[in-house]
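Lecture 7 notes: from sequence to structure.

We start with a single chain of 139 residues. Read the sequence below before looking at the structure.
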Amino acid sequence: MTAHKTVMLEVDGETVEVDKAIVLLIQAINTVQGVRTQYSCRDGGGLGYVAFGRAEDTARSLFQCVRFQSRMLDNMNTELIVTNSQGEDIALASFRAEAVRIVDDGPQFCIRWNPTFYPLVLKAALKTAEQLAARDKVS
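Now the structure, written as tokens:
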């Protein structure tokens, strides 16, 4: 297996190593209040993935993770639905979110995708972060 090129990224005052190919995705997710990435890979076992969890041990932070995952999946699936000449909606691909699992430092959420669709995943993450920031600003 070929090692991926990595870069160092600062998140909440801590320097972490991430795949260079998905650094923009990691940055976008970490802008969401209450959500922090935990690990990621641009192509691990044939799928790209990012796991994230609470930034702090609060119910609000947990809610933000659930909200982010739900909105992110909606945005990703919206990007991949096209209408054919007969007016039928066709999904080009699908994404999935893994069930929440409890790890030593709390609940963990994970989104996986086919690496071919990374540009759409990034677009959905940026849109989701923007939507949640605007919503939090109003709240």
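Helices lie at 23-30, 59-79, 118-138. Keep this in mind for problem set 3.
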